[in-house]
Specification:
The protein contains 17 helices and 10 strands.
Length: 415
Amino acid sequence: MNYNSALSGFHKLSIDDKLNKIKEMVELTDEEINRLRVTEAPVTIENTIGVMTVPIGVATNFTINGKDKLITMAVEEASVVAAASNAAKIARKHGGFKTSNTGANMIGQIQILNVMNPEFASQEIISRKDEIIKLANEQDPILVKFGGGAIDIETRIISTVTGVQLVVHLIVNALDAMGANAVNTMVEACAPLLEEITGGDVNLRILSNFADRRVVRSRAIFDKEMLGGEEVVEAIVDAWAFADADPYRAATHNKGIMNAISAITLATANDWRAIEAGAHVYAAKDGYYSSLTTYDINEEGNLVGTIELPLALGIIGGATRVHPVAQTCLKIMDVKSAMDLAEIVASAGLAQNLAALRALSDEGIQKGHMKLHARNLAGSIDGISTELADKIARQMVKDGKVRADYAEELYKNMK
């Protein structure tokens, strides 16, 4: 699927015109387009009484590994999609985003209590690794058939407030799945054998959401002139250094990254809570909470940005498989594999972070936010036309009074 993701004026189109444009570009069917208009979702949870709809936007201008990408984001916060699109446009001049990854390995943990000699038991487990892996792989022959499955085990001895515990890690290549169901089934099956080997009592058997064997990296060069010049570039690096050194700033810095990452994760019906948890643990992997991104200045004076974090995403199984809107979003992004999706997500996170740092370092984050907030306030007035809403929004920003009561006052005077 080949298209140009630099869609000039896309944001000015009506929703129908946007959908028709996307339909033409990525060859969506009428049914797939209608899914994006439907507010009902398949029943995937218990006690369902309705749905909470979230707008789905399309971030443009992205080039990832030499290929143009449109990126779907499900998010309620204004400016997220526009900011990511703008940052991608700046990166586009120097080839866009380049990515790499460590593969799709997940960790299943088995907690063993009351082990008399943990060191000896640990060695016994390793000596019977092949037997344990064989048992695990018997639980999911389909995953094994396609080249995945359990590939290794590790042991850890940890001290806790309730005593010493022996923890076994089962390493599983999940391929294009997120892997939770497969991994959990495998560790459940291995529990009795591990009790026999160790003489201990197995307690927890569950996947870890700290997917540090499934790390994705993305990097890009952001043009100094498009950013606003050398002073802005230096200010962005200083702003990043603040987040890198201070957890109070890093929390907000990384939250901005997750604006994009969680939005894509939600649009594809992946587990955004697991992704959030893993990302924040990874940010503290060196013993203190820090930035998930890095920035520097190259010889030409351009800004060089990188991001690195674990992304356990899937394109088969779970809600992603049964949710029709998720399937349509994957098609729009032309996703071919779980790692393809993860690399898109990482690149969008880097773009989102760069956009936030640029706004903070140059004009302040609130200026752009308030423009969009003004449009939202004006657009929420009952019966207002699009043209008048735009006019009122511009007036509120000009007057520096972006408030609901002022929007109503302007409406009464203008209509």
